[in-house]
Amino acid sequence: MELEEVLRRRRAVRRFTNADVPREVLDRVVAAGVSGPTAGGSQGRSLLVLTSAADRDRFWRATSDDVDAPDAWLAGMTTAPVVVVCLAEPAVYVERYARPDKARAQPHLGPDPRDASAWPVPWWDVDAGASALLVLLAAVDTGLVGCLIGVPPDRWPRVRGAFGIPADQRLTAAVVLGHPAPDLPRSRRRPPVARVVHDGAHGRPWTATPG
After folding, report:
1. How far apart are the first and last CA of the chain?
2. Neighbours of 14 (CB within 10 A)
3. Distance in angstroms (rounded) separating the CA atoms of residues 184 and 180
4. What pTM does this model have?
């Protein structure tokens, strides 16, 4: 599928059929998810892929107390046959940027780049978010659909305990994947490009070339 078509088709889907996702399809999707660049070549992001019913149930029970009496949103989400948890390891980034070649070029990180709290933009989260987007786009390219969801920070210890995730890993987001359920409601329309893209100065709308 051409990239333009992938971008056009991508939308957030919140209810899925019970059809399985073939392993070879997931191979392509998760490989795409870790194919993007990382800040400083740090490679401090990874994916936890949950495909079995037992693992998915553990994930939802770790992130919510309402699995046995779900609202409409959770009832739809738990039908997804795949959950991909996007992880980030800040320590890998701060170690990389503390090296002389990076520390000299990044004075805005403060006197000690190893202090993660001093980073104005946490690049580990940026890279993990980019992985999530690549997973979503690759899913569309293989005929799947998905939705990006958050993992409540107060639930991180329960998710870590359920899946053996080290304490130094941030649970940046998760992506649910599968085949769309029939008769899904229409997605909200995306805003016009001119409303959200600025040309040279904030508030100056981007004007697309005609044709």
Report:
1. 23
2. 22
3. 8
4. 0.88
Q: Phi and psi for 101 in degrees, rounded to 5?
A: -65, -30
pLDDT in tens, the chain (211 residues): 787 888 788 888 899 998 999 999 999 999 999 999 998 899 999 999 999 999 999 999 999 999 999 999 999 999 999 999 999 999 999 888 888 777 665 655 656 666 777 778 899 999 999 999 999 999 999 999 999 999 999 999 999 999 999 999 999 999 999 999 987 666 667 888 889 999 999 999 998 887 6
**Backbone CA torsion sign across 178, 33, 6, 136:** positive
Residue 161's contacts (CB-CB under 8 Å, 6 or more residues apart) are 62
With beta carbons less than 8 A apart as the criterion, state whether 76 and 13 touch.
Answer: no
Residue 123 is given by DSSP the state H
Strand order in the sheet with 145-149: 45-50, 82-88, 170-178, 145-149
131 membership: H or E segment, kind and range: helix 123-141
User: DSSP assignment of 45-99, as one string?
Assistant: EEEEEE-SHHHHHHHHHHH-S-TTS--HHHHHHTT-SEEEEEEE-HHHHHHHHTS
Residues 26, 18: Cα–Cα separation, whole Å: 16
**Residues in contact with 115: Cβ distance below 8 Å, sequence separation at least 6, in sequence order:** 94
